[in-house]
Amino acid sequence: MSEKLTPLEQNPEGIGYLPGLAMDFVIFGFDQYQLKILLLEYRNTNLFALPGGFVRENENMNDAARRVLSERTGLSDIYLDQFYTFGDLARYDQAPLRTIMQAKGLNPTDDHWLLRRFVSVGYYALIDFRKAAPTPDPLSDNCIWYTLENLPELMLDHKAIAQKALETLRADLDRKLGGYDSWAAPLLPKAFTMGELQKLYETILGQQLRRSSFQRKMLSLDILERLEKQYSGGAHKAPYLYQFIMDK
Amino acid sequence: MSEKLTPLEQNPEGIGYLPGLAMDFVIFGFDQYQLKILLLEYRNTNLFALPGGFVRENENMNDAARRVLSERTGLSDIYLDQFYTFGDLARYDQAPLRTIMQAKGLNPTDDHWLLRRFVSVGYYALIDFRKAAPTPDPLSDNCIWYTLENLPELMLDHKAIAQKALETLRADLDRKLGGYDSWAAPLLPKAFTMGELQKLYETILGQQLRRSSFQRKMLSLDILERLEKQYSGGAHKAPYLYQFIMDK
DNA sequence: CCATATTGTCTCATTATGGAACAATAATAG
DNA sequence: CTATTATTGTTCCATAATGAGACAATATGG
Questions:
Q1: In this prediction, what percent of chain A has a pLDDT beyond 70?
Q2: Domain A8-172 CATH class label
Q3: Substitution target from B62, B66, B89 for chain A, most A beta carbons within 10 A
Q4: Transmembrane region positions (chains A, B) (predicted)?
Q5: N or C end of chain A: which has fewer CB within 10 A?
Q6: Cβ–Cβ under 8 Å, residues B184 and B198
């Protein structure tokens, strides 16, 4: 499974990987009622990028996505969705990657495989901010969480990719509601209050929801199991705790 | 724009095209209240496949999709949507393509580029059955419309691709409702009756809709303009004709 | 002229949603 | 120990959306 491949930057031919095909990840983390995404920073270049990766020759593409995601976040049980594939010629710009490689002391030739045209498959992931152990990739120096409002300038078309990921995530929320997949489970404690669940929805959708309607809707879906009352909390009535029903 | 490239089958290196990247098309046609998709047939091989294509080195991927679609259908103004990218290793099976090429009198070596592993970007299209001029690609001998219920055995994972296209199309119908894109326009006469529009929806969704609800909903969306009454028709009250409002 | 099928519209029951009220109650302040 | 306070679970009602059917209108075919 984990055969040794030459590190990417020292592999000018890209041996062992599918040529011209990349993956980019929009990794959403839920932290303090804020939605953040994980970016890589390249020191001395002022360049930021989405985490990315490549597909090995003997690997399913979706498996490759899980592998790279695990390498970047340390997490294996992740909600992951392929949302779009980006193939514009405008993506083909050698400048930023060359800058990054040069800042690393490399001096790639024009036909280094990383400098060729790539089509990139976009995935978005939802992960638990607290459980993640972000790890930079071999070319970058730093992993940082950014709120969507404070995104820095991103390489290539990565801003558009992040934007499209958010749109897809929001549009998917309704449809995923009924499904048993419970995308929300990995983002919440095992037992959570209705308020916490609502806050999660509001954070992702970027808008307020009505409390009574939300509760009614959620309870009507038969995806929640009510547990005992919560003991701790604030200066007010204790809320119930819920967990997702994991039947079948 | 239309630079001359060596025909695919005589181009063992795939010069001029992005390596390892294909596109597959699920072309939906609306005919006699039936939803059909366009398949290619390879004579003497008993093999059927979705129309496919490749991306040129100096071409946006989505432009390539329109180009190929135009080559296969003769249509240029087409509703086209990229819905998923298929990258399983199981797609990598030389046998069917080798059979096809041999039936054409070709004898490709194992590393002919068409026999290598491909990742394929799936697009679905909605076209007017009557306006289409289906044209087989250089390797196939025939274009045939099939209803979804009567699909023959398809090459590789093409059946799964068609299935996913249909699911995506159906799921998208609601969301596209509000939009001004009016995906339905190219599938209907310039002026159409409410019954025709409803039939279109029913055909795509594969289920009956309630007549009064459908009419109420459509009229409430403010996307239809009512014209004069239809003059011809059957032995019954003449229905109104409508057209889509094309404002901004 | 009559029968017939389909259309445009209307009505009423049912269901979903928005918006607000209200009692319950766990912590905190006195 | 009591009062205060914030938040919760629930209920209520107005409004909106949808399901299901009724009914008159009317081109065409007989």
A1: 93
A2: alpha beta
A3: B89
A4: none
A5: C
A6: no
What is the b/e burial string over B76-91, where b = at least 16 CB atoms within 10 angstroms of the residue's CB?
eebbbbbbbbbbbeeb
Are residues A173 and A204 in contact, defined by beta-carbon separation less than 8 angstroms?
Answer: yes
Q: What is the pLDDT of residue B63?
A: 97
Confidence (pLDDT) at B100 = 86
The answer to whether the C-beta of B239 is closer than 7 A to strand C is yes
Computed from CA positions of residues B3, B26, B39, B182, in that sequence, does the dihedral angle turn out positive or negative? negative
Q: Burial letters for B205-235: b for 16+ Cβ neighbours within 10 Å, e otherwise?
A: eeeeeeeeebeeebeeeebbeeeeeeeeeee
Least confident among A143-157, A166-180, B215-229: A166-180
Maximum CA extent, chain A = 66
Q: Which fold has domain A188-244?
A: Arc Repressor Mutant, subunit A (1.10.10)
- pLDDT-derived band at B120 (thresholds 50, 70, 90) equals very high
Out of A20, A82, A90, closest to residue B85 by CB: A82
Q: Which has the higher per-residue pLDDT, A140 or B35?
A: B35
**Cβ of A233 less than 7 A from strand C:** yes
Are A240 and A193 contacting, i.e. CB atoms less than 8 angstroms apart?
A: yes
Nearest CA in chain A to B172: A171
Looking at residue B2, its pLDDT comes to: 45
CA separation for the pair A156, A165 (Å, rounded): 16
Determine contact, residues A195/A214, Cβ cutoff 8 Å: no
Q: Chain B residues with CB inside 8 Å of A62's CB?
A: 87-88
List the domain boundaries for chain B: 8-172, 188-244
Q: Which of residues 174-203 of B touch A (CB under 8 A)?
A: 175
Check A119 against B84: CB less than 8 A apart: no
Whether the CB of A168 is below 8 Å from some CB of chain B: the reply is: no
Query: What is the reported pLDDT for A120?
Result: 97
